[in-house]
Specification:
about 40% helix, three-stranded antiparallel sheet, TIM Barrel, binds calcium ion, Enolase-like, domain 1, alpha/beta
């Protein structure tokens, strides 16, 4: 079998309900979907978390010429070759994000060729269902009362849907953050997990103040409190608060995570994005490193349904930090914000019922793509 064509589809859709995290307001959803064709009639699909036009250029200009004519089943060999080809110029960021999407598409081809789900070829499943947490509770209005009303209703909605965990965006200033934490805890009670995510909107001084004040509200983790490069501040924060410290969606490959995990460890929970940190191949290696260092692993997920399916395949094979009935089991990040084509791109969307997500059982990633939806939102 040989690779005959590589396409990077850039997709975009405006959204009516804008929402904000600590860095920006979001007024459109974007995606980069990779399609790799073979002479055997098998097509593999991948998803990239990254700036679409730039990663598409890396895929089509740098990687595609190296892929055409190659055997797609030799995934590790291809990973090494592509990684080395841009190693001097792209040890992290878009070069690795583009590589991630290629790797995912090659796993999809491998699964379809052998007639097995990716997680079976990776040695699983360790589990066939995982708990999903709702990613939402973004800032929706600059008017404080209106914002509180919207987020209160949103949190209640997650409870009604059966979610046992949800994540609040913080990083808007101490008063905003604490007001929302207090109000939301009042609404959801203490039996539901509440996480908070600052999207590295704070420096260490601000992050310390928030962490110490939020401890009373049983926060499950504090995600990206400070800049991803500032591991010394992650370590300092981890020393002074009982709230577990999380991060890693802006880090790449074994080499970044080696620095995060080495003693003194910078994070309690690492969150590599499978469609950004190096693909399924690399993220499984990172997960094994995390276990060896005693760190938890919950994949970051922010993409199309292909990315969601990819995360589920990885979640099916993530090792436990420790065995035992009380073991921490990895969770699915389930994006609940507006997205016109996230699940619509799939013939059979990834199912989440009562806060539980089920691992796709079909060959490869276990998803089929709706070509008409792809064409509708494609902009390149
Ligand atoms: Ca995040």
């Amino acid at each position: 079998m040989k690779i005959t064509a590589v396409h990077a589809h850039v997709m975009e859709a405006p959204i009516e309900e804008h929402f904000a995290f600590s860095q920006a307001w979001v007024d459109k959803r974007v995606g980069t979907v990779i399609e790799i064709e073979t002479d055997a009639g098998i097509t593999g699909w991948g998803d990239v978390y990254g700036p679409p036009w730039i990663v598409a250029a890396v895929i089509e200009k740098a990687y595609a010429p190296m892929l055409i004519g190659e055997n797609p089943l030799a995934g590790d060999a291809i990973w090494e070759r592509l990684h080395n080809s841009l190693r001097d110029h792209g040890q992290r960021g878009v070069a690795i994000q583009a590589l991630s999407g290629v790797d995912i598409a090659l796993w999809d081809i491998r699964g379809k060729h052998f007639g097995a789900p990716v997680h079976v070829l990776m040695g699983g499943p360790l589990r066939s269902e995982v708990k999903a947490y709702a990613t939402g509770l973004y800032r929706r209005s600059m008017d404080q009362d209106e914002n509180i009303a919207i987020l209160s209703e949103e949190a209640g909605g997650y409870i009604n849907q059966g979610f046992g965990a949800m994540k609040l965006k913080v990083g808007f200033g101490f008063d905003y953050d604490m007001t929302l934490i207090e109000i939301l805890r009042g609404i959801i009670g203490f039996d539901v997990d509440l996480f908070m995510d600052a999207n590295h909107g704070y420096d260490l001084v601000q992050a310390k103040k928030l962490a110490l004040a939020a401890e009373a509200y049983d926060i499950g983790w504090f995600e990206e409190p400070v800049a991803p490069e500032d591991l010394e501040s992650y370590r300092e924060l981890r020393r002074i608060t009982t709230i577990p410290i999380a991060g890693g969606e802006c880090s790449f490959t074994r080499f970044d995570f080696r620095a995060i995990l080495e003693s003194p460890r910078a994070m309690d929970i690492i969150q590599p994005d499978t469609a950004s940190a190096g693909g399924l191949t690399e993220c499984k290696k990172i997960a094994d490193m995390a276990v060896a260092h005693g760190a938890r692993y919950n994949p970051h997920v922010w993409g199309t349904g292909i990315g969601l399916a990819t995360a589920m395949q990885l979640l099916a094979v993530l090792p436990l930090t420790v065995p035992g009935v009380a073991a921490h089991v990895p969770m699915l990040e389930y994006d609940q914000t507006p997205h016109p084509f996230r699940q619509g791109l799939l013939v059979d969307p990834i199912q989440v019922e009562n806060g539980v997500a089920y691992v796709p059982e079909g060959p490869g990633l276990g998803v089929e793509i709706k070509r008409d939806v792809l064409e509708r939102y494609k902009v390149n």
